[in-house]
Amino acid sequence: MTAVTTPKKEKFIVPIGPQHPALKEPGHFEFAVDGEVVTDATVRLGYVHRGIEKGAENRNWTQNLYLVERICGICSHIHALTYALGVEALAEVEAPPRAQAIRVLVAELERVHSHLLWFGIAAHEAGFDTLFMYSWRDRETIMDILEALTGNRVNYSANLLGGVKFDVTDAQRAIILEGINFLEERTHHYLNVATSDGMFLQRTRGIGVTRLQDAQRLGIVGPTARASGVMRDVRVDAPYAAYDAFPINIVIETSGDLEARFVVRLKELFESFRLIREILDNLPPGDLQVKRFPRRIKPGEVISRVEAPRGEVFYYIRSNGSEQPDRVKVRTPTLCNMASVLSLSIGHHLADVPMLLVGIDPCFSCNDRGVVVCSSEGSHDQWTWERLRQYGIEYYAKKV
């Protein structure tokens, strides 16, 4: 008599990272899958540690302005702005209104650049490479504007302690208005694609749903939280720089899925366009910087937070009365949103994982890395991120 044995179900651990083309900074994910369904997910962070916070303790207050600007190549202005606002609060110095308005102007230009960059990456992960190329082509418009305004395309170096470095001329104003008029028209097209294209909606509608209660429990921030109905935006909750004079309207969606995250970010572009026009039409007169900023700052501590394109950036700064900070602590929005990726992945198909990851607009650096799939028979199969991405595209193509 021959014993009948039940074949074991295959269960794989799919590691992604730490170096990976789809990750803008190094991070290591492990997704346990039962068949095609994710049953568990873990993440290990810390690969991008560069000692910037410790390095800040060995530089003076002004030198750190340029150091923190290099924390992120996409949100460079936001980091410098958050640091400058914190140090100015410690020194009890306030930048002139014209400087504050220019700071907000650059911040909103940077938000447009960041959201378009994310939109292209998300389209690529969904298999819409034409949309990726169009959006990145259009993004060059905002990059050219930032270069014309500040002289730089990545680290704009717009801030000083107590003000900004440059003014906005009439010629620059005309370039900015022409650029955002073009981008506004293109954004209408992108919003139409993201909300009406059947193939695109197959990858986003009803995928990765985060309810309001879960978003609040997980502490999600930024557009990812607002796509779940969380009424939270630092520009409104605690206006800084010139946001009290130039207020924004919060963009909210309630469905909490990937489609809602696309809609929130694209609609936020319209709000940025409106705000940029309003600032250019009502730029306050006056100086660009204070007459004198102290080299030594009296002992004390302060928190400074602003709304970056991905969500709240938080700085803790402490002074011991010297020319250098005693402590600088930085918390970026990706850390807050990362837990949602792990939570959302469980129960979803492996094919949805690339879109779930990109849905929070993670801030990771890019390097290639193979993915090894281990079967229960002991065989090993190497997957690249491109193969995983293609798997997702083919999986949904079969469902049409």
Q: Would you mind describing this structure in some detail?
A:
This protein is α+β, with helices and mostly antiparallel strands. The chain is 47% helix and 15% strand. The protein contains 14 helices and 10 strands. It has helices at 52-56, 61-68, 76-91, 97-125, 129-150, 170-196, 198-204, 212-218, 222-226, 234-237, 258-281, 333-345, 353-359, 385-397, and strands at 11-16, 28-34, 37-44, 159-160, 163-164, 300-308, 311-319, 325-331, 370-374, 380-384. Strands 1-2-3 form a 3-stranded antiparallel β-sheet, with helices on one face. Strands 6-7-8 form a 3-stranded antiparallel β-sheet. α2 (61-68) runs antiparallel to α3 and α5 (129-150) packs antiparallel against α6 (170-196). The chain is globular.
Low-confidence residue ranges: 365-372
SSE pattern, N- to C-terminal: EEEHHHHHEEHHHHHHEEEHHEEH
Task: State the helicity in percent bands.
Answer: 40-55%
Q: Based on DSSP secondary structure assignment, what is the total number of beta strands? A: 10
Our estimate of the beta-strand percent is 15-25%
Q: How is the main sheet built?
A: 3 strands, antiparallel
Number of helices: 14
Q: Mean pLDDT across all residues, rounded?
A: 87
Tell me the span between the first and last alpha carbons.
47 Å
| Order of strands across the main sheet | 1-2-3
Radius of gyration: 23 Å
Assign the structural class, choosing from mainly alpha, mainly beta, alpha/beta, alpha+beta, or little secondary structure.
Answer: alpha+beta
Shape field: globular
Task: Summarize this entry quickly.
This protein has 14 helices and 10 strands. The chain is of the alpha+beta class.
